[in-house]
Write a structure and sequence with these properties.
The protein is of the alpha/beta class and about 325 residues long. It contains eleven helices and ten strands. Strand 1, helix 2 and strand 2 form a beta-alpha-beta unit.
Length: about 325
């Protein structure tokens, strides 16, 4: 190869280094906007507020959390998919992100290809709760009663295709049970009904049910996670209860537009990981029943692809029709 050609290639390769470093060192050059696709006060809203409050301190830059609920989270996701890929507009979504393609076939974006998955902020086990007045003290008692009168029980959810719905459907399929689904506009409405005893059961995020369980208003029968929840250490997992394939992880994660420079994706991952490791954030998330879910950006990307396929299969099995 001619010397002039070698020099040109060398100059080109060297020129790329400052570009990548510049993108990372100058980020963020202006306030960061974190878009949450659910209402204030939900666990998907509270967790990013806890984490990004610390990220703001680390970066010395303000972080504004904006709630944009609607259409199962697809309204907010659609905004981020088309946002400028400069790392200052961030999506925090939940397991709703991977069920959306099965529920809304015309959402206008690709849940995997149009986003750079940054990192999970944690996983919140869902817990099967019943009214204390129901008299059920173990999941075995509950299953036996449900099998004795097939289809007589009802359960609530935060809406068709939400994690609270899919958690229940996976549990019912694993246990060989039938029950009537009653969808609500959100988790708080379903929680009020289970407290009042008008619902037979509800798969609630541990964060939302913890206080009511501790106060003796609700009884926690089983968690649908791979290990016991640190917040409810005495409640068995579905596997410990003898059920197979009954887990449904309710995770919360951070995303950027797909074309965001990798240096910014990595920097956000590192800063959020650092925030998650601080004692204050760890303690606050533990109080919410949030367990760690450690993944690199590439691992989280691969997880999203797998979950989209798994959720599509579950939606088909559950007979959930596109909205």
């Amino acid at each position: 190869m001619k010397p002039s050609r070698l020099l040109s290639l060398f100059a080109f390769s060297v020129s790329l280094i400052p570009l990548n470093t510049h993108a990372q060192s100058n980020w963020p050059s202006r306030p960061i906007h974190v878009v949450v696709p659910f209402a204030p006060g939900t666990v998907t809203d509270v967790v990013p507020r806890v984490v990004f409050e610390q990220v703001s301190v680390q970066l010395g830059q303000s972080v504004v959390v904006e709630n944009r609920p609607g259409a199962g989270g697809t309204t907010a996701a659609g905004i981020i998919a088309k946002a400028d890929p400069d790392g200052t507009t961030i999506l925090v979504n939940s397991a709703a992100h991977t069920i959306a393609p099965a529920l809304y076939p015309n959402i206008g974006y690709d849940a995997a290809k149009d986003f750079a998955a940054v990192l999970p902020l944690g996983v919140v086990p869902s817990v099967l709760v019943v009214s204390r007045a129901s008299g059920f003290n173990t999941v075995a008692d509950f299953i036996a009663a449900a099998k004795a009168k097939p289809g007589s029980m009802n359960f609530g959810s935060a809406g068709v295709g939400t994690a609270t719905h899919l958690s229940a459907m996976r549990f019912l399929a694993s246990a060989g049970l039938e029950a009537v689904h009653i969808p609500f506009k959100g988790g708080p409405e379903a929680m009020r009904e289970i407290v009042a005893g008008r619902l037979d059961f509800f798969f609630a995020p541990v964060a939302n049910a913890l206080q009511l369980v501790n106060d003796g208003v609700l009884t926690a029968l089983v968690v649908n996670s791979a290990k016991r929840s640190a917040a409810l250490p005495d409640v068995p997992t579905t596997a410990e209860a003898g059920l197979t394939n009954a887990e449904y992880p309710f995770w919360i994660g951070t995303f950027l537009p797909a074309k965001t420079p990798r240096a910014i994706v990595d920097r956000l991952h590192d800063e959020a990981t650092k925030a998650l490791a601080t004692p204050t954030v760890k303690a606050r998330l533990a109080m919410l029943g949030v367990d760690p879910m450690i993944m690199s950006p590439s691992e989280f990307d691969a997880f999203i692809v797998r979950q989209i396929a798994a959720d599509a299969a579950l939606a088909g099995t559950a007979g959930i029709k596109p909205q």
